[in-house]
Amino acid sequence: MIWDWAYTLEILPRLARAAIITVEATLLGFVFAAILGLVLAVVRLAFPKTLVPISVFVEFIRSTPLLIQIFFLYFVFPSFGIVLDAFTAGVLALGLHYGAYCSEVYRAGFEGVHRGQWEAATALNLDTWTTFRDIIVPQAIPPTVPALGNYLVALLKETPLLSAIAVLELMQTAKILGSENFRYTEPITLVGLFFLAMSLVSAMLIRMVEAALKRRYVR
Amino acid sequence: MGIRALFIMLLVAVAAIVAMGFSGDNAIFLPGLLQGATLTIQIAVVGSIIAFCAAILAALGKMYGPLPIRWLANIYIEIFRGTSALVQLFWLFFVLPQFGILLDAYTAAVIGLGLNVGAYGAEVVRGAIGAVPRGQWEASTALNMTRGQMLRRIILPQALLAMIPPWGNLLIELLKTTALVSMITLTDLAFKAQQLNQTTMKTVPIFTLVLLMYLVISLTITIGMRLLERRAARGVTRGRLA
Fold first, then answer.
1. Which residues contact A184 (CB under 8 A, 6 or more apart)?
2. Which of B78, B79, B86, B183 to mutate to test the interface with A (most CBs of A within 10 A)?
Protein backbone atom coordinates (compact mmCIF):
# COMPACT_ATOMS: atom_id res chain seq x y z
CA MET A 1 0.00 0.00 0.00
CA ILE A 2 1.58 3.20 -1.12
CA TRP A 3 -0.92 5.74 0.14
CA ASP A 4 -2.51 5.33 3.57
CA TRP A 5 -5.74 7.29 3.92
CA ALA A 6 -6.17 6.60 7.63
CA TYR A 7 -2.72 8.02 8.31
CA THR A 8 -3.48 10.97 6.03
CA LEU A 9 -6.59 11.84 8.02
CA GLU A 10 -4.75 11.38 11.28
CA ILE A 11 -1.97 13.85 10.43
CA LEU A 12 -4.19 16.37 8.67
CA PRO A 13 -5.18 18.35 11.80
CA ARG A 14 -1.57 18.75 12.92
CA LEU A 15 -0.53 19.91 9.47
CA ALA A 16 -3.46 22.31 9.36
CA ARG A 17 -2.33 23.85 12.65
CA ALA A 18 1.20 24.15 11.27
CA ALA A 19 -0.24 25.81 8.18
CA ILE A 20 -1.43 28.62 10.44
CA ILE A 21 2.18 29.26 11.51
CA THR A 22 3.19 29.29 7.84
CA VAL A 23 0.48 31.83 7.06
CA GLU A 24 1.51 33.97 10.05
CA ALA A 25 5.15 33.94 8.99
CA THR A 26 4.15 34.80 5.42
CA LEU A 27 1.91 37.71 6.38
CA LEU A 28 4.27 39.18 8.97
CA GLY A 29 7.22 38.76 6.63
CA PHE A 30 5.37 40.35 3.75
CA VAL A 31 4.16 43.32 5.81
CA PHE A 32 7.74 43.89 6.93
CA ALA A 33 9.01 43.49 3.35
CA ALA A 34 6.41 45.86 1.91
CA ILE A 35 7.20 48.56 4.49
CA LEU A 36 10.97 48.12 4.29
CA GLY A 37 10.81 48.19 0.50
CA LEU A 38 8.78 51.39 0.51
CA VAL A 39 11.18 53.02 2.99
CA LEU A 40 14.20 52.02 0.90
CA ALA A 41 12.60 53.24 -2.30
CA VAL A 42 11.49 56.57 -0.80
CA VAL A 43 14.81 57.23 0.94
CA ARG A 44 16.65 56.50 -2.28
CA LEU A 45 14.34 58.89 -4.11
CA ALA A 46 14.48 61.65 -1.51
CA PHE A 47 18.19 61.57 -0.67
CA PRO A 48 20.35 61.01 -3.77
CA LYS A 49 23.39 60.53 -1.53
CA THR A 50 21.98 57.22 -0.29
CA LEU A 51 21.79 55.85 -3.84
CA VAL A 52 25.05 53.91 -3.73
CA PRO A 53 24.74 52.33 -0.25
CA ILE A 54 21.13 51.33 -0.85
CA SER A 55 21.92 49.86 -4.29
CA VAL A 56 24.80 47.86 -2.84
CA PHE A 57 22.61 46.67 0.04
CA VAL A 58 19.82 45.62 -2.32
CA GLU A 59 22.24 43.90 -4.70
CA PHE A 60 23.87 42.09 -1.78
CA ILE A 61 20.57 40.84 -0.35
CA ARG A 62 19.32 39.76 -3.75
CA SER A 63 22.55 37.94 -4.62
CA THR A 64 22.85 35.74 -1.54
CA PRO A 65 20.63 32.80 -0.60
CA LEU A 66 17.82 33.34 1.84
CA LEU A 67 18.84 30.20 3.73
CA ILE A 68 22.23 31.69 4.54
CA GLN A 69 20.61 34.97 5.56
CA ILE A 70 18.31 33.09 7.93
CA PHE A 71 21.33 31.30 9.40
CA PHE A 72 23.11 34.60 9.66
CA LEU A 73 20.30 36.22 11.66
CA TYR A 74 19.79 33.16 13.82
CA PHE A 75 23.36 32.04 14.46
CA VAL A 76 25.54 35.11 13.92
CA PHE A 77 23.51 37.88 15.53
CA PRO A 78 23.78 36.32 19.01
CA SER A 79 27.55 36.90 18.73
CA PHE A 80 26.75 40.60 18.56
CA GLY A 81 24.46 40.33 21.56
CA ILE A 82 21.20 40.22 19.59
CA VAL A 83 19.41 36.98 20.41
CA LEU A 84 16.34 36.30 18.28
CA ASP A 85 14.05 33.35 18.69
CA ALA A 86 13.68 31.16 15.61
CA PHE A 87 10.33 32.55 14.44
CA THR A 88 11.43 36.20 14.77
CA ALA A 89 14.74 35.55 13.02
CA GLY A 90 12.94 33.74 10.22
CA VAL A 91 10.32 36.43 9.73
CA LEU A 92 12.97 39.16 9.84
CA ALA A 93 15.08 37.35 7.26
CA LEU A 94 12.09 36.83 4.97
CA GLY A 95 11.11 40.49 5.34
CA LEU A 96 14.63 41.72 4.74
CA HIS A 97 15.11 39.53 1.69
CA TYR A 98 11.83 40.39 0.02
CA GLY A 99 12.07 44.02 1.18
CA ALA A 100 15.07 44.33 -1.13
CA TYR A 101 13.02 42.94 -4.01
CA CYS A 102 10.01 45.12 -3.17
CA SER A 103 12.13 48.28 -3.11
CA GLU A 104 12.93 47.67 -6.79
CA VAL A 105 9.24 47.22 -7.52
CA TYR A 106 8.35 50.50 -5.81
CA ARG A 107 11.20 52.23 -7.58
CA ALA A 108 9.79 51.14 -10.92
CA GLY A 109 6.39 52.38 -9.77
CA PHE A 110 7.73 55.81 -8.84
CA GLU A 111 9.70 56.07 -12.05
CA GLY A 112 6.51 55.25 -13.91
CA VAL A 113 4.87 58.45 -12.67
CA HIS A 114 5.26 61.15 -15.26
CA ARG A 115 7.62 64.04 -14.42
CA GLY A 116 4.86 66.47 -15.30
CA GLN A 117 2.95 65.32 -12.22
CA TRP A 118 5.71 66.63 -9.95
CA GLU A 119 5.93 69.83 -11.93
CA ALA A 120 2.18 70.36 -11.86
CA ALA A 121 2.16 69.80 -8.11
CA THR A 122 4.93 72.37 -7.70
CA ALA A 123 2.95 74.78 -9.88
CA LEU A 124 -0.06 74.28 -7.59
CA ASN A 125 2.17 75.17 -4.63
CA LEU A 126 1.71 71.80 -2.91
CA ASP A 127 4.43 70.91 -0.43
CA THR A 128 6.56 67.79 -0.99
CA TRP A 129 4.70 65.64 1.53
CA THR A 130 1.26 66.49 0.12
CA THR A 131 2.50 65.93 -3.41
CA PHE A 132 3.87 62.61 -2.40
CA ARG A 133 0.82 61.47 -0.48
CA ASP A 134 -1.96 62.76 -2.72
CA ILE A 135 -0.43 62.85 -6.19
CA ILE A 136 2.48 60.45 -6.54
CA VAL A 137 1.62 57.48 -4.31
CA PRO A 138 -1.92 56.97 -5.66
CA GLN A 139 -0.46 56.76 -9.16
CA ALA A 140 2.72 54.87 -8.34
CA ILE A 141 1.40 52.10 -6.09
CA PRO A 142 -1.55 50.50 -7.95
CA PRO A 143 0.60 49.40 -10.94
CA THR A 144 3.00 47.68 -8.52
CA VAL A 145 0.32 45.42 -7.04
CA PRO A 146 0.77 42.52 -9.51
CA ALA A 147 4.54 42.47 -8.95
CA LEU A 148 4.13 42.71 -5.18
CA GLY A 149 1.62 39.88 -5.40
CA ASN A 150 4.20 37.71 -7.14
CA TYR A 151 6.58 38.34 -4.28
CA LEU A 152 3.88 37.49 -1.75
CA VAL A 153 3.46 34.07 -3.38
CA ALA A 154 7.24 33.67 -3.66
CA LEU A 155 7.63 34.55 0.03
CA LEU A 156 4.95 32.03 0.96
CA LYS A 157 6.89 29.36 -0.86
CA GLU A 158 10.14 30.28 0.88
CA THR A 159 8.70 29.76 4.37
CA PRO A 160 9.69 26.05 4.44
CA LEU A 161 13.25 27.35 4.80
CA LEU A 162 12.32 28.32 8.34
CA SER A 163 12.27 24.59 9.09
CA ALA A 164 16.08 24.77 8.89
CA ILE A 165 16.10 26.75 12.13
CA ALA A 166 13.37 24.56 13.61
CA VAL A 167 10.37 26.86 13.33
CA LEU A 168 7.37 24.54 13.62
CA GLU A 169 5.81 25.49 10.31
CA LEU A 170 4.36 23.09 7.71
CA MET A 171 7.60 21.56 6.49
CA GLN A 172 9.12 21.07 9.92
CA THR A 173 5.89 19.47 11.16
CA ALA A 174 5.84 17.18 8.12
CA LYS A 175 9.43 16.16 8.77
CA ILE A 176 8.64 15.42 12.42
CA LEU A 177 5.53 13.46 11.48
CA GLY A 178 7.52 11.55 8.89
CA SER A 179 10.25 10.61 11.34
CA GLU A 180 7.74 9.66 14.04
CA ASN A 181 5.92 7.23 11.77
CA PHE A 182 8.59 6.39 9.19
CA ARG A 183 6.22 7.47 6.45
CA TYR A 184 7.16 10.52 4.43
CA THR A 185 4.89 10.06 1.43
CA GLU A 186 1.71 11.41 3.00
CA PRO A 187 3.07 14.33 5.04
CA ILE A 188 5.30 15.75 2.31
CA THR A 189 2.69 15.31 -0.41
CA LEU A 190 0.14 17.01 1.82
CA VAL A 191 2.56 19.88 2.40
CA GLY A 192 2.85 20.26 -1.36
CA LEU A 193 -0.94 20.33 -1.68
CA PHE A 194 -1.24 22.85 1.18
CA PHE A 195 1.21 25.14 -0.58
CA LEU A 196 -0.54 24.74 -3.92
CA ALA A 197 -3.85 25.66 -2.28
CA MET A 198 -2.37 28.61 -0.43
CA SER A 199 -0.62 29.93 -3.57
CA LEU A 200 -3.82 29.68 -5.57
CA VAL A 201 -5.85 31.45 -2.86
CA SER A 202 -3.30 34.25 -2.57
CA ALA A 203 -3.13 34.62 -6.35
CA MET A 204 -6.92 34.98 -6.35
CA LEU A 205 -6.86 37.56 -3.55
CA ILE A 206 -4.20 39.56 -5.37
CA ARG A 207 -6.31 39.56 -8.51
CA MET A 208 -9.25 40.87 -6.46
CA VAL A 209 -7.13 43.66 -4.95
CA GLU A 210 -5.89 44.52 -8.44
CA ALA A 211 -9.45 44.70 -9.76
CA ALA A 212 -10.57 46.82 -6.79
CA LEU A 213 -7.68 49.24 -7.27
CA LYS A 214 -8.36 49.47 -10.97
CA ARG A 215 -11.99 50.43 -10.30
CA ARG A 216 -10.87 53.08 -7.85
CA TYR A 217 -8.00 54.63 -9.76
CA VAL A 218 -9.14 54.48 -13.35
CA ARG A 219 -6.84 56.59 -15.44
CA MET B 1 23.41 48.80 -11.46
CA GLY B 2 25.80 49.38 -14.30
CA ILE B 3 28.22 46.69 -15.34
CA ARG B 4 31.17 48.70 -14.04
CA ALA B 5 29.62 49.11 -10.58
CA LEU B 6 28.90 45.38 -10.50
CA PHE B 7 32.48 44.65 -11.44
CA ILE B 8 33.79 46.89 -8.66
CA MET B 9 31.48 45.15 -6.22
CA LEU B 10 32.79 41.78 -7.40
CA LEU B 11 36.40 42.87 -6.87
CA VAL B 12 35.58 44.21 -3.40
CA ALA B 13 33.87 40.94 -2.48
CA VAL B 14 36.81 38.85 -3.72
CA ALA B 15 39.23 41.09 -1.84
CA ALA B 16 37.10 40.73 1.31
CA ILE B 17 37.15 36.95 1.01
CA VAL B 18 40.92 36.91 0.58
CA ALA B 19 41.47 39.39 3.43
CA MET B 20 39.15 37.54 5.77
CA GLY B 21 40.02 34.03 4.69
CA PHE B 22 43.74 34.40 5.27
CA SER B 23 43.61 36.38 8.49
CA GLY B 24 44.36 34.46 11.68
CA ASP B 25 42.63 31.17 12.24
CA ASN B 26 40.16 31.63 9.42
CA ALA B 27 42.47 29.93 6.93
CA ILE B 28 41.31 26.52 8.17
CA PHE B 29 37.81 27.23 6.87
CA LEU B 30 38.85 28.00 3.31
CA PRO B 31 39.51 24.48 1.93
CA GLY B 32 36.17 23.15 3.20
CA LEU B 33 34.22 26.15 2.03
CA LEU B 34 35.86 26.13 -1.39
CA GLN B 35 35.04 22.44 -1.71
CA GLY B 36 31.44 23.25 -0.91
CA ALA B 37 31.46 26.13 -3.36
CA THR B 38 32.68 23.81 -6.12
CA LEU B 39 29.75 21.47 -5.56
CA THR B 40 27.37 24.45 -5.43
CA ILE B 41 28.67 25.71 -8.77
CA GLN B 42 28.50 22.22 -10.27
CA ILE B 43 24.87 21.79 -9.19
CA ALA B 44 24.01 25.26 -10.44
CA VAL B 45 25.53 24.57 -13.86
CA VAL B 46 23.90 21.17 -14.38
CA GLY B 47 20.64 22.46 -12.91
CA SER B 48 20.57 25.42 -15.27
CA ILE B 49 21.14 23.19 -18.30
CA ILE B 50 18.19 21.02 -17.24
CA ALA B 51 16.16 24.14 -16.50
CA PHE B 52 16.83 25.58 -19.93
CA CYS B 53 15.86 22.39 -21.75
CA ALA B 54 12.75 21.93 -19.60
CA ALA B 55 11.75 25.55 -20.17
CA ILE B 56 12.06 25.38 -23.96
CA LEU B 57 10.21 22.05 -24.15
CA ALA B 58 7.44 23.17 -21.79
CA ALA B 59 6.99 26.50 -23.54
CA LEU B 60 6.87 24.97 -27.02
CA GLY B 61 4.57 22.23 -25.73
CA LYS B 62 2.27 24.77 -24.12
CA MET B 63 2.17 26.99 -27.21
CA TYR B 64 2.19 24.59 -30.15
CA GLY B 65 1.72 21.05 -28.83
CA PRO B 66 -1.39 18.95 -29.43
CA LEU B 67 -3.98 19.16 -26.67
CA PRO B 68 -2.67 16.42 -24.31
CA ILE B 69 0.86 17.81 -24.46
CA ARG B 70 -0.49 21.30 -23.87
CA TRP B 71 -2.22 20.04 -20.72
CA LEU B 72 0.90 18.22 -19.57
CA ALA B 73 3.00 21.35 -20.03
CA ASN B 74 0.43 23.42 -18.16
CA ILE B 75 0.25 20.97 -15.29
CA TYR B 76 4.04 20.82 -15.06
CA ILE B 77 4.35 24.61 -15.01
CA GLU B 78 1.58 25.14 -12.47
CA ILE B 79 2.75 22.41 -10.10
CA PHE B 80 6.37 23.46 -10.07
CA ARG B 81 5.57 27.15 -9.78
CA GLY B 82 2.84 26.57 -7.22
CA THR B 83 4.76 24.54 -4.66
CA SER B 84 7.84 25.24 -2.65
CA ALA B 85 11.25 24.28 -4.04
CA LEU B 86 12.22 22.66 -0.75
CA VAL B 87 9.07 20.54 -0.75
CA GLN B 88 9.84 19.47 -4.32
CA LEU B 89 13.37 18.42 -3.36
CA PHE B 90 12.08 16.48 -0.36
CA TRP B 91 9.48 14.85 -2.53
CA LEU B 92 12.05 13.71 -5.09
CA PHE B 93 14.46 12.53 -2.45
CA PHE B 94 12.24 11.02 0.25
CA VAL B 95 8.92 10.21 -1.43
CA LEU B 96 9.93 8.87 -4.85
CA PRO B 97 11.80 5.91 -3.30
CA GLN B 98 8.43 4.81 -1.86
CA PHE B 99 7.26 4.41 -5.44
CA GLY B 100 10.37 2.43 -6.28
CA ILE B 101 12.33 5.24 -7.93
CA LEU B 102 15.58 5.73 -6.06
CA LEU B 103 17.48 8.91 -6.87
CA ASP B 104 20.77 9.72 -5.25
CA ALA B 105 20.94 13.12 -3.60
CA TYR B 106 22.88 14.77 -6.42
CA THR B 107 20.46 13.60 -9.12
CA ALA B 108 17.46 14.58 -7.04
CA ALA B 109 19.00 18.00 -6.48
CA VAL B 110 19.79 18.82 -10.11
CA ILE B 111 16.48 17.43 -11.37
CA GLY B 112 14.51 19.23 -8.65
CA LEU B 113 16.21 22.57 -9.17
CA GLY B 114 16.21 22.20 -12.94
CA LEU B 115 12.51 21.42 -13.12
CA ASN B 116 11.65 24.14 -10.59
CA VAL B 117 13.48 26.90 -12.41
CA GLY B 118 12.47 25.41 -15.76
CA ALA B 119 8.82 26.01 -14.90
CA TYR B 120 9.51 29.71 -14.37
CA GLY B 121 11.73 29.69 -17.44
CA ALA B 122 8.90 28.25 -19.54
CA GLU B 123 6.89 31.42 -18.97
CA VAL B 124 9.93 33.52 -19.85
CA VAL B 125 10.40 31.57 -23.09
CA ARG B 126 6.70 31.86 -23.87
CA GLY B 127 6.80 35.61 -23.31
CA ALA B 128 9.90 36.01 -25.46
CA ILE B 129 8.43 33.97 -28.33
CA GLY B 130 5.22 35.95 -28.06
CA ALA B 131 7.21 39.16 -28.28
CA VAL B 132 8.60 38.32 -31.73
CA PRO B 133 6.63 40.51 -34.13
CA ARG B 134 3.86 38.79 -36.09
CA GLY B 135 5.41 39.88 -39.34
CA GLN B 136 8.32 37.53 -38.75
CA TRP B 137 5.92 34.58 -38.74
CA GLU B 138 4.11 35.86 -41.77
CA ALA B 139 7.36 36.44 -43.68
CA SER B 140 8.55 32.91 -42.91
CA THR B 141 5.20 31.52 -44.04
CA ALA B 142 5.59 33.51 -47.24
CA LEU B 143 9.01 31.90 -47.70
CA ASN B 144 7.32 28.50 -47.49
CA MET B 145 9.12 27.37 -44.35
CA THR B 146 7.80 24.54 -42.24
CA ARG B 147 6.82 25.28 -38.66
CA GLY B 148 10.05 23.68 -37.36
CA GLN B 149 12.18 25.76 -39.71
CA MET B 150 10.38 28.95 -38.74
CA LEU B 151 10.96 28.32 -35.05
CA ARG B 152 14.54 27.21 -35.46
CA ARG B 153 15.78 29.76 -37.96
CA ILE B 154 13.64 32.84 -37.50
CA ILE B 155 11.72 32.95 -34.25
CA LEU B 156 13.96 31.33 -31.62
CA PRO B 157 17.13 33.29 -32.53
CA GLN B 158 15.20 36.52 -31.99
CA ALA B 159 13.41 35.24 -28.91
CA LEU B 160 16.69 34.06 -27.34
CA LEU B 161 17.98 37.62 -27.34
CA ALA B 162 14.91 38.89 -25.50
CA MET B 163 15.24 36.02 -23.02
CA ILE B 164 18.73 36.81 -21.81
CA PRO B 165 17.94 39.38 -19.08
CA PRO B 166 15.11 37.37 -17.45
CA TRP B 167 17.23 34.21 -17.66
CA GLY B 168 19.96 36.08 -15.81
CA ASN B 169 17.50 36.64 -12.96
CA LEU B 170 16.41 33.02 -13.04
CA LEU B 171 19.98 31.74 -12.90
CA ILE B 172 20.59 33.83 -9.78
CA GLU B 173 17.41 32.36 -8.31
CA LEU B 174 18.70 28.91 -9.17
CA LEU B 175 22.05 29.58 -7.54
CA LYS B 176 20.35 30.76 -4.39
CA THR B 177 18.03 27.78 -4.38
CA THR B 178 21.04 25.44 -4.47
CA ALA B 179 21.49 26.31 -0.79
CA LEU B 180 18.48 24.05 -0.17
CA VAL B 181 20.27 20.93 -1.36
CA SER B 182 22.17 20.95 1.95
CA MET B 183 18.92 19.64 3.43
CA ILE B 184 18.95 16.51 1.30
CA THR B 185 22.43 15.59 2.54
CA LEU B 186 24.58 17.16 -0.19
CA THR B 187 27.77 18.80 1.04
CA ASP B 188 27.39 22.09 -0.76
CA LEU B 189 28.51 25.51 0.47
CA ALA B 190 25.57 25.92 2.87
CA PHE B 191 26.13 22.43 4.28
CA LYS B 192 29.85 23.02 4.78
CA ALA B 193 29.02 26.24 6.57
CA GLN B 194 26.71 24.48 9.03
CA GLN B 195 29.22 21.68 9.50
CA LEU B 196 32.14 24.00 10.20
CA ASN B 197 29.91 26.10 12.42
CA GLN B 198 28.96 23.11 14.51
CA THR B 199 32.54 21.91 14.92
CA THR B 200 34.31 25.24 15.49
CA MET B 201 31.52 27.57 16.69
CA LYS B 202 33.19 30.42 14.80
CA THR B 203 29.88 31.62 13.49
CA VAL B 204 30.74 35.14 12.38
CA PRO B 205 33.69 34.50 10.02
CA ILE B 206 32.14 31.31 8.57
CA PHE B 207 28.79 32.74 7.63
CA THR B 208 30.28 36.03 6.47
CA LEU B 209 32.67 34.15 4.18
CA VAL B 210 29.80 32.02 2.87
CA LEU B 211 27.65 35.07 2.13
CA LEU B 212 30.56 36.68 0.29
CA MET B 213 31.19 33.51 -1.73
CA TYR B 214 27.58 33.34 -2.86
CA LEU B 215 27.78 37.03 -3.69
CA VAL B 216 30.86 36.45 -5.84
CA ILE B 217 29.19 33.62 -7.75
CA SER B 218 25.99 35.54 -8.42
CA LEU B 219 27.82 38.72 -9.40
CA THR B 220 29.82 36.63 -11.86
CA ILE B 221 26.56 35.32 -13.32
CA THR B 222 25.07 38.81 -13.53
CA ILE B 223 28.14 40.26 -15.24
CA GLY B 224 28.39 37.25 -17.55
CA MET B 225 24.79 37.60 -18.63
CA ARG B 226 25.22 41.33 -19.24
CA LEU B 227 28.23 40.64 -21.44
CA LEU B 228 26.35 37.87 -23.24
CA GLU B 229 23.46 40.23 -23.85
CA ARG B 230 25.79 42.85 -25.24
CA ARG B 231 27.47 40.28 -27.48
CA ALA B 232 24.18 38.79 -28.68
CA ALA B 233 22.67 42.19 -29.40
CA ARG B 234 25.58 43.09 -31.66
CA GLY B 235 24.35 43.75 -35.18
CA VAL B 236 20.69 43.76 -34.17
CA THR B 237 18.95 46.93 -35.20
CA ARG B 238 17.08 48.73 -32.51
CA GLY B 239 13.76 47.19 -33.34
CA ARG B 240 11.16 45.95 -30.92
CA LEU B 241 13.43 43.37 -29.44
CA ALA B 242 16.65 45.25 -28.90
1. A174, A178, B90, B94, B95, B98
2. B86
Residue B29: name the closest of B220, B215, B208, B218 by CA.
B208
Quote the pLDDT of residue A1: 55
CATH number at residue A78: 1.10.3720.10
Residue at B61: amino acid letter: G
Residue B207: which of A66, A71, A178 has the nearest Cβ?
A71
pLDDT confidence of residue B237: 57
> Which residue positions in chain B have pLDDT lower than 50?
240-242
CA of A174 vs chain B CAs: smallest distance (Å): 10
Show residues of chain A in contact with B199, CB under 8 Å.
Answer: none
Q: What is the pLDDT of residue B106?
A: 94
Chain A CB contacts of B99 under 8 Å are 2
Please report the sign of the dihedral spanned by the C-alpha atoms of residue B159, residue A207, residue A58, residue B204.
Answer: negative
* B58 located within any domain: yes
Cβ–Cβ below 8 Å for B82 and A188:
no
The pLDDT assigned to A82 comes to 87
Q: Residue A22 and residue A170: Cα distance in Å, rounded?
A: 6
Query: Can you give the length of chain B in residues?
Result: 242
CB atoms A75 and B207 under 8 Å: yes
Containing structural domain, residue B214: 3-232
- Domains of chain B: total: 1
Instruction: Please indicate if any CB of chain A lies within 8 Å of the CB of B136.
Output: no
Residue B242: its pLDDT value, please? 40
pLDDT of residue B97: 87
User: Residue A141's domain spans which residues?
Assistant: 5-216
| B198 contacts chain A (CB < 8 A) | no
For the stretch A37-85, pLDDT in tens is 999 998 988 888 988 999 999 999 999 999 999 999 998 888 888 889 9
